[in-house]
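Preliminary data (for renewal application), 6-O-phosphono-beta-D-fructofuranose complex.
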Amino acid sequence: MKVGILSGGGDAPGINAVIRAVVKKGVQTYDYEIVGIKNGWRGLLEADFIVLDLDETSGILPRGGSILGTSRTNPFKPKNKAQQIMRNVEDSDLSAVVAIGGEDTLGVAFKLSKLGLPVVGVPKTIDNDLCGTDYTFGFNTAVSIATETLDRLHTTAESHQRVIILEVMGRYTGWIALEAGLAGGADAILIPEKPFDIDEICNVVKHRQSRGKDFSVVVVAEGAKPKEGKEILYSKGRDAFGHVRFGGVGYYIGREIERRINTETRVAVLGHLQRGGSPTAFDRILATRYGIAAIDLVHQGEYGCMVGIQGNKIVSIPLKDVVGKRKTVDLEFYELASIFFG
Ligand code: F6P
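Predicted structure:
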């Protein structure tokens, strides 16, 4: 039996660990032929495939990015090309597809599954905003990098008596900001789920100054917005899934703090540094468990679902319960973090 595998959307550390696990168990245990589909759904539209065997996937466990490449191609937009996909699946004799992706890639997987595509999803995004799973792989790596960055920013902020703002990714949810902020001892954490008040941030800085702490470190998710305004965008254009590009909220906050309380600020934007490079041990293990579970589901003929982790158990969740919603930050968890603000 031939099984295709693709990675779509933004990359996340651990994609190659999933691919390696699918190939290892698929080939060795089930005697499957595994076909790599290049660059997400685009590769299925263009029938752009490579054969993945044990040799091809040896040594990729610690490697960042995706050996298959990725894209944000949406086969339903601007034109509906779903039939082209279904034809290519049939012509190339694929019996099933493993789709590694976030809300967009899995949204497409769900639509195609309703058209008859036998598909299993694997939850991937550094944002950790997918429903049905406690963790997406890639998130732990992003949090670790952002935490290390906060540690580094602390020492320079303290030496220069400055306020430093770290802008991290997270367009609709603040999981990275919250967990890195908690682990890195941030003095304020700003997330998209809770519009922020600049005066409150200034009060945190002033309060710290009044108790002899003449430096502060603030972490902000790119999608966080001021109470009185809108999200700050890098550009207004939208991708094939309708997403705008965020960026710049850190600079907005830095400038406002300087203007309102005359305290020197600096801004660091972590950007794609938190997405590139090697996965943490946690993500390598999670991605490996996901890959094994995905190929097992294929073997059982259980399609239209996504693997996930709940507690420490690997589970399967119907795609209909995953797509079209978002796992936002638990505000009780945020309240806990706020005990350390100021
Ligand atoms: O979806 C994950 C993510 O990393 C978001 O946090 C971020 O807004 C977006 O991707 C950036 O996408 P791109 O790589 O296209 O700039």
